[in-house]
Amino acid sequence: MARRKNMQRRREILDNTFRLIRANGFDHVSLQMIAENSGISKSLLQSYYPHKARLMTDIVRNLFNTMWDQVEINYHAPKKNPLRPGGRFNLHDRDFGNDGQGPGPGNYGGLY
Question: pTM for the whole thing?
Answer without folding.
Answer: 0.59
